[in-house]
């Protein structure tokens, strides 16, 4: 059931996945296909065993029909994610990650885990990375200043998660700065 806009403080994770599905990824096609035009652009031709770059939505469709193998993005491997997790734990700043890494990783792991090396470890590292980054987000919200919130390198899903709290908190802080509460004993 869809909620009315007034009750929906931000975009849903499924909607974010839909937006992320426009990202181009590499595949190894198992079929030949001429260049095909879509509203979003023309993709192809597909000639096995040559790699091709197509939108994630198209790769998912072909993968589900067993017509391609999806090649994981360069950041979707155990070594890279372990390095990023170590940075998240050891440094106060957010490490740099692709803007839609959560959504893309989820889609690829859901439909093409057989094309990935060690998908269970990838899931575990992504979960740990997400939890470490969420802890930093919560800490950033705790130290919220009425003029700004500086959390560089936040990703799409993370921004979406903190948006309702941030907007509400900034509204309250702005009101407090504009209309400071007078203590009743100070005026006496």
Automatic annotation (TrEMBL):
Gene Ontology BP terms: chromosome segregation; DNA replication; double-strand break repair via break-induced replication
Gene Ontology terms: cellular component: GINS complex
InterPro entries per record: GINS_A, GINS_bundle-like_dom_sf, GINS_Psf2, PSF2_N
Residue ranges occupied by any GINS subunit domain in the UniProt entry: 75-175
Location in the cell: Nucleus
Major localisation: nucleus
Alphabetic keyword roster: Chromosome partition, DNA replication, Nucleus
Domain DNA replication complex GINS protein PSF2 N-terminal: 12-71
Quaternary state and interactors: Component of the GINS complex.
Name recorded for this polypeptide: DNA replication complex GINS protein PSF2
UniProt organism field: Agrocybe pediades
